[in-house]
From TrEMBL:
Keywords: Signal. Gene3D superfamilies: 3.40.50.2300. It holds the Pfam family Peripla_BP_6. Residues 33-391 form the Leucine-binding protein domain. InterPro entries: BCAA_transport, Leu-bd, Peripla_BP_I. The keyword Signal applies. Belongs to the leucine-binding protein family. Residues 1-19 form the signal peptide. The keyword Signal applies. This is Branched-chain amino acid transport system substrate-binding protein. It comes from Acidovorax soli.
Length: 428
């Protein structure tokens, strides 16, 4: 059911990195570890996405522990290291709920999940009930990728904090580029058939109607999540529709297989994506994607600036294998926000930590953001990139050794990226 591995031994490095060797001597954290549980797909169709998350969170926790852990007073237990255990949800909601129960029984105080909005929704509901039923064993939920807007609107929870931009925010950022593409007259909408994929298509139609009423939606399709092995029939329909561009929120293998199939049937249109910047997608589409694959993110490796470049190079030094090249700034900021909130709370009590998390404001390597207390939606800059060959202007770094990277064409400030909410927060 659940596979657990501690931070101390689960990912033993082949070489020591900057994150493990602070420049000045730092006393080791000797207090009781703060237990964190990663509940994610670590096997099956989306195992690569779960492992990518694990590497990011592990690296972020290494950095905190390298500086002495979370600084608490002696009366609060002294400096405490962060400890990570991983639980395999196998991409199933019931498995995720079983993993949640196991994690709580194992003493976890922080739950981490994100690679499915449907799973996030059931975890929020379960955590709400658990925290009310067992106030002495409460947990908080940090969400790094589940971006269905409903999670910080109708389903908002005091215990849940989202660190990724939700689907409406991401779509608005993509629309910044689509609005300027005057040659674009027709699009095909395709997505995974669950809450997030449905939200992406719904918002795409809404924003196209408002900002590009001259653009015609010539096709709309939802497909099963993680179960389609051959996207050729979908690609054929996309090509036959005459669509000049595809808009999709697909992620993981559902995106990689889609763009690969499109290339193989000779589709020459553009792809406006939420996640087209990694996990095999650039290599799958090759030269056909140059200038045509667009991706929105909280950060991209080719974001200009020395601090951003040093951050990316440090990650690649830590994880040098090309297939491990998928770093998320938001996950680094999430762990920094957790450490900050524990220190300001002066304890690991979930209520006290959550109250401080509502006020979290963090900076790292020239990037940063702050939590909006009203709905627990992290507010941060967004960027939009266009695929090009490594070495082209603005493309110093490629993706996964593919020879293709993303040139940043839009940088959207937090104030412009934010969206209104309908959350009515119930606080303890």
């Amino acid at each position: 059911m659940a596979v657990a591995a501690t931070l101390a031994c689960a990912l033993a490095p082949a070489s020591v990195s900057w994150a493990q060797t602070p420049t000045a001597a730092v006393p080791a954290a000797t207090g009781k570890p703060v237990k964190m549980a990663l509940i994610e797909s670590l096997s099956g169709a989306f195992a690569n996405t779960g492992e990518a998350v694990y590497r990011n969170i592990y690296w972020a926790m290494e950095r905190v522990n390298a500086r002495g852990g979370v600084a608490l007073s002696a009366s609060a237990g002294g400096a405490r290291p962060l400890a990570l255990e991983r639980y395999d949800s196998k991409g199933q909601n019931e498995e995720a709920l079983s993993a949640l129960r196991a994690a709580i029984d194992d003493g976890a105080q922080v739950i981490l999940q994100g690679n499915s909005s449907a799973t996030a929704a059931v975890l929020i509901e379960a955590i709400n009930k658990h925290n009310e039923r067992e106030p002495n064993k409460r947990v908080i939920f940090l969400n790094y990728s589940a971006v269905d807007p409903i999670l910080t609107n109708e389903k908002c929870s005091f215990w849940h904090f989202r660190f990724d931009a939700h689907a409406d925010m991401r779509m608005a950022a993509l629309m910044e580029v689509m609005r300027d593409d005057k040659a674009l007259k027709s699009v095909y909408l395709i997505g995974q058939d669950y809450s997030f994929g449905q939200a992406v298509l719904r918002e795409a139609k809404k924003q196209l109607s408002a900002q590009r009423p001259d653009v015609t939606v010539v096709g709309e399709e939802l497909h099963p999540v993680g179960r389609v092995k051959d996207f050729a029939p979908y690609a054929v329909k996309i090509k036959a529709s005459g669509a000049q561009a595809v808009v999709t929120g697909n992620w993981g293998n559902d995106l990689t297989l889609l763009v690969k199939a499109a290339r193989e049937v000779g589709y020459e249109g553009s792809f406006y994506t939420f996640y087209g910047n990694a996990l095999g997608a650039p290599a799958a589409i090759g030269d056909a994607g140059i200038g045509k694959v667009v991706a929105v993110a909280d950060w991209l490796p080719n974001v200009p600036g020395a601090q951003s470049e040093a951050f990316y190079q440090a990650f690649r030094e830590r994880f040098p294998k090309p297939q491990d090249d998928y770093v998320h700034m938001r996950m680094q900021l999430m762990v920094e926000a957790l450490a900050q909130s524990i220190e300001r709370a002066g304890s690991t009590d979930p209520v006290a930590v959550a109250r401080q998390m509502e006020k979290a404001s963090v900076q790292l390597s020239g990037q940063g953001g702050s939590m909006r207390a009203a709905d627990h939606q992290f507010q941060q800059a967004l960027v939009v990139g266009v695929m090009d060959k490594k070495g082209a202007n603005g493309v110093k770094f490629d993706v996964e050794g593919s020879g293709y990277g993303f040139r940043v064409v839009r940088q959207i400030a937090p104030a412009k990226a934010q969206q209104p909410h309908t959350c009515t927060m119930q606080r303890p």
